[in-house]
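Hello K.,

You asked for the raw outputs rather than the summary table, so here they are, unedited. I folded two proteins back to back in the same session to keep the settings identical. This is the first:
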Amino acid sequence: MKTKKRFDGWLIVSLILLAAFILVLIYPMFGLLKQSVVMPDGSFSFQQFAKFFSKSYYTDTILHSFEATISVTLLTLLIGIPFAYFYAFYRLKGARFLFVISILCCMSAPFLGAYSWIMLLGRGGVITKFLKSAFGIVLPSIYGFKGILLVQVLKFFPLVFIYMNGAFKNIDNTLMEASANMGCVGVKRLFKIVLHLCMPTILASALMVFMQAFADFGTPTILGESFLTFPVLLYNEYLGENGSNYNYAAALAVIAIIITAIVFFIQKWATGRFRFSINALHPVEKKKPTGVGGVLMHLYCYLLVIIAFLPQLYIIYLSFRNCKGSVFHPGFSLGNFKAAAKKLLGRSIGNTVILGVVSLAIIIVVAVIIAYLVVRRGNALNNTIDTISMLPYIMPGAVIGIALLIAFGKKPFALTGTLAIMVIALVIRRMPYTIRSATATLMQIPMSIEEASISLGASKAKTFVKITVPMMSNGILSGAILSWVAIVTELSSAVILYNNRTITLTMAAYVEIGRGNYGTAAAFAAILTVVTAISLLIYMAISKSEDVKL
């Protein structure tokens, strides 16, 4: 007797997801590739790629980007790992304060730090003028490579802290005790045991910092001057003041994808050499820092987060200062906020909230479904969907922005200048955070729990909604908060896609800086800082957690 084949609803879901990713990601990428090799007259040519490699002016931008990005990555590891080690292994006073402030440091657009540091250390900066007049000390220029390094290191070291804090908490105390019994303690144990166990996490955090720093458009634009980086060249060629070369910009975008993909695969290869897992059945008990060492630990941690948070504090201060154009005058008022209100403040806030909420809702739903398909129903189709969904992780935002403009700039998908194209960009660009977090959480949930629910009469769909999803909530929330903050502070793709109808707080602040309206820019930036701070506090209240885990 033949049994009737049951209808597989999850197969339909998988096919719908695959079709969606082909439409909003694969199709735009093919359009980008086509524009890089098909000239306006319809001929096929690699001349745009040859143009890039024929002049040192262009190739130097790659060297500049690698010089800055590699330096930033190494320095963030150098200062972020000790900070995470002290936080995870010692009972620091004010630990919650350190955590919140350090997270807020990375929850802002990088260019805001650049703008603030110019106000502090630029040619006419407050600190620069004070040191010169009071002590005759002339500070080195903040512009160029050094300035980019300063801003990005202080912006991205909390990412290393987030990753490493989670890794350190997974180290079992019995390993620490065993190493101590063998005479391996202190700094020796840190390098021989602890860091070796955490090497996969170190490599993952290094990749995250590298990708973020490489794709950063705002900081090099504001501080770079003659130190031209690759993302800035890409933007200038696509939307430059001296004319646009769309074919050349597309070729640059393809080169950017190849470079970041190579870096990604190198990281994957390196991580593969450290294939082991750790799980803290007996978590390490935090020690009380004492003596000179304890003082130095506190001094290091507090100085680091205060210096890193200084730009955001100064922006809030400047937002209340009297200002005309780029010159701040004595006295305080709400003039900057009134000026911002006349320059699309309401629309910027509304668009930021709408784009954020809609994008995040889509991200959470799709991420949960993909995590379930990969972990519980793993097959070639679902693994393909998972791989495609991670492609934006290795793509600079400007590349995604250009690809979407090419794909949806004309019929039948004429979405240019709409909130829809902004939502698409934000969803595909920021979804990987939540997917990885949700997947990691689901892998830790025993399948037997779902089987028990089904055996008691619940349908698979009801089990998924009522049992599986609630148990994934912590992982979903952790990924969602990172996705949310990345959404509301997005610049690199937004600068390609926005117009006055779709302008956000981040874009409004960036535009005002470019126009030299520093007071108005400070008002937009201050509101954006408050929005990100409230987001973090809401997350911590809902999750009842002091940590953001990846």
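The second followed immediately with the same parameters:
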Amino acid sequence: MPNDAIFTESGESLRYLRMLSRQFPSVEAAATEIIRLQAYLNLPKGTEHFMSDLHGEHEAFLHILNNASGAIKEKVDALYANSLSSKERAVLATLIYYTDAKLKEIREETPAAEMDEWYKITLNRLIEICRLVASKYTRAQVRDALPKGYEQIIDELLHTGYDALNKEQYYENILATIIDIGRADEFIIAICAAIKRLVVDRLHIVGDIFDRGLRPDIIMDSLMAHHRVDIQWGNHDILWMGAGAGSRTCIANVLNNCITYNNLEVIETGYGISLRPLALFASERYGKTDLTCFMPRTAEGGRYNPRDLEQTARMHKAIAIILFKLEGQTIRRNPSFRMEHRLLLDKIDYDTGRIMIDGKEYQLRDWDFPTVDRADPYRLTEEEAEVMSQLRFSFQQSEKLQRHIKFLYSKGGMYLCCNQNLLFHGCIPMEEDGSFTSFDVDGRTLSGKAFIDYTETLARQGYYARPDSPERQKGKDFLWFLWCGSSSPLFGRGKMATFERLLIGDKALCEEGKNPYYRHNNEEETCLKILAEFGLSGEYSHIVNGHVPVISKDGENPVKANGRLIVIDGGFCRAYQPKTGIAGYTLVYNSHGIRITSHEPFAGVADAIRYNKDILSTSVIFETRESRIKIADTDDGARIREEIAGLRQLLAAYRRGTIKEYHGGE
């Protein structure tokens, strides 16, 4: 019990206690909550699931989300390894992952006379699995996780054993009635949803949901439906956030990326944004120009209409030139970005097609740009300005896109400190000597955490500041800087070499270079310094990083700096998989410790359902605790202890007479 001397008759403490008394209006209520919370602290910590660099690969993402990086299959195997064949266990796991589709298939392939027995067996097995994954939660938490309308009956089935005295027939009758009245499918769906909900307590997305893959919007819909998720912004996410905020420069970059990978589905189908204005403009102004440099990348083995590819290339050329112009305008507006070296349109000799970059002359592969004014190359033509005006309107009026952007702002940030781990996507900008890079911003010199905090403030300003205000424009420009600025903590490279890749192709010139962080982060001393900068220390503190793929096929280890750094970008995106040799890493942190899992390429949802194919995954446990981690050891535990301290103060205030109990009707 706290010392009574801490209580005062006035001030913030008394106001706080009066507010708390509205929620716990009596000695009994406060005491009961203290008992509940104190017991809760001794439960095992919930499982955290980390994923990164999803890049629109929605099918692979949904599968790994459904199987919790193999955790659900482990539970199935733990219960049934000795009683079911591997095929039967695979079918059961697939039923949990893709419940609706697998149920439909089973109904079609199972004789009607055998379905009741299948339902009975399956319901019993699923209840056992659900009971196992629910074992480290309170009963109230489990009820909250159960789908509404089914919680009472499922709760009954979960929390009393079938061998309970006098209740065996009672439970058998519950299952028999569920089957008899035709509700077995609904109960299976509800129990499978509860299993997936309970097996992971918290999902961390360490950046780059967007670009390259077909449907990042489907990933975003799934994240919005998740019970507990946080997002550390990646540079591709921040680009879409800038586009949603109405930045023309960001919109042009988004379209350039989508067209480069021949992925207009996310724009037109996913977000309902019409590209007709760009298509008409491109046909008119670039219809007779060379398109060789602007042909979109196509998937191996895909079938494409040559006319469609040619039209896409025209659109690509049109938006690329608009992009170079808008980026030039943004750079000129913001000398503090120190990106003058990326002003390239005015360095072209339009008679010979030669360009001078970093003191060396190169021959362009294409310099037929009919909309570029040699005297003012960064000025948009009236037609280009109109196209961008229409596109900006469409981006800002897309209800689905705006929902997703607001979700990214509400659930996201530049970094997260969670349970002694520091999560961020890109880098902490550093100098060659390993010191944090200093930035002069608004009359202050910032580095390390202070600079990262500043970048998040400006990123939010770009969306939430008053429309048409200087603050809004500054924030929108900064969102673009975070996408590709040479000192951006989300980009971490020297330059975004879009111009060089499209128009020159010189391999050395296209090298973007990496921030010194990516050399120093292999050193434990550097990682400890970064952790300390963010207020973290101790034997079990780590950095969880994404952004730069780990080249697994060359033997690169995702665990670096003597275990202080874990890089979980392993090639989720199909475009990276030939380079990395795998299809991504994920991380699981449960009450026993941390394990990292590598995944093989995903064959697709159809194969997963039809043939019960899981993603082939390999897990490595690299840190195991001597004793199980309890909620008391987590950030949630620290918050709960604060709640308990407040409740103890309230309890003492009731007993002292400082706060009056409320029993209703007074």
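Residues 1-7 have pLDDT under 50 and may be disordered.

Happy to rerun anything if the numbers look odd on your end.

Regards,
P.
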